[in-house]
């Protein structure tokens, strides 16, 4: 059964998007008739991809190739400019952990809010608050606003919420670097359990060793295009041949 399908997905991004936007300067330049549209870059170029349920897919490619962007499009964090993305099943995007939190409100309220963002009902989330706090080791912080947590604690909370129920699709960006050593081991164990099950997994990594060992299939992205897809060992070999 199909888990993820991308048809001709393209994404253009403004190259200045990551820099702070200066409203005053922009308005002034419009007023003076000097305004120019910021340049845009094609970050994903006509991506076709079908992932079957339970497949473990590694995504490889050089810096800036579009790997993280592809994961964000599949997770619904970014909308493609053109093309279609279809995802079937509960998805746990373990990327930008905690990016959806409201720092002014309490840990408990954020658990409810974030869970709803991930597609769970409020009632369902209320039942899960206890196990999430326990896994994140944040029981003593339940009424503290998220701005009072350390960045590691925020990531722990994001991970605990996204993985509290076994997802059907797991999206991982690079080897997980959540929290301290002992928490990382705990996360790794939870992920290993998903790996042995029927969960569909998409993982970005620069470790070819890991991709070969852990993924059945791999896709190689190059400058936003899908260069090669297939058996992970073969894709890794072609990629390594091209860079050495
Ligand atoms: N917020 C953003 N706004 C505009 N362009 C962006 C933004 N984030 C990334 N890009 C651009 O999108 C392209 C793809 O970036 P992406 O982060 O997906 O690459 P990557 O393959 O994951 O790279 P890496 O291996 O370095 O993590 C790059 O050219 C990058 O400059």
From TrEMBL:
This protein's UniProt keywords: ATP-binding, Hydrolase, Nucleotide-binding, Transport
Highest taxon, organism lineage: Bacteria
InterPro entries on file: AAA+_ATPase, ABC_transporter-like_ATP-bd, ABC_transpr_TagH-like, Bact_Polysacc_Export_ATP-bd, P-loop_NTPase
Pfam families, alphabetized: ABC_tran
SMART domains given in the database record: AAA (SM00382)
One MF annotation (Gene Ontology) recorded for this entry: ATP hydrolysis activity
Residues of the ABC transporter domain: 25-243
A cellular component term, taken from the record's GO annotations: membrane
UniProt-listed Enzyme Commission number(s): 3.6.3.40
Record PROSITE patterns: ABC_TRANSPORTER_2
UniProt family annotation: Belongs to the ABC transporter superfamily.
Listed name of the protein: Teichoic-acid-transporting ATPase
Organism: Pseudanabaena biceps PCC 7429
């Amino acid at each position: 059964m199909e888990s993820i399908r991308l048809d001709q997905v393209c994404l253009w991004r403004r190259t200045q998007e990551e820099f702070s936007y200066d409203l005053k300067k922009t308005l002034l330049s419009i007023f003076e008739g000097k305004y120019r549209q910021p340049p845009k870059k094609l970050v994903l170029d006509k991506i076709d991809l079908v992932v079957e349920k339970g497949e473990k897919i590694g995504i490889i490619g050089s810096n800036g190739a579009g790997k993280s962007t592809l994961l964000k499009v599949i997770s619904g964090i970014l909308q493609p400019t053109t093309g279609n993305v279809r995802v079937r099943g509960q998805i746990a995007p373990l990327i930008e952990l905690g990016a959806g939190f409201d720092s002014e409100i309490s840990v408990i309220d954020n658990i409810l809010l974030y869970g709803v963002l991930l597609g769970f009902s409020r009632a369902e989330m209320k039942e899960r608050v206890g196990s999430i706090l326990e896994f994140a080791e944040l029981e003593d912080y339940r009424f503290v606003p998220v701005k009072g947590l350390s960045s590691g604690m925020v990531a722990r909370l994001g991970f605990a919420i996204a993985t509290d129920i076994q997802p059907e699709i797991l999206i991982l960006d690079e080897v997980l670097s959540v929290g301290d050593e002992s928490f990382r081991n705990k996360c790794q164990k939870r992920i290993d359990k998903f790996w042995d099950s029927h969960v569909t997994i998409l993982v970005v990594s620069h470790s070819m060793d890991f991709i070969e060992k852990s993924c059945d299939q791999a896709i190689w992205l190059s400058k936003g295009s899908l260069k090669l897809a297939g058996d992970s060992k073969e894709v890794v070999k072609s990629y390594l041949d091209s860079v050495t």
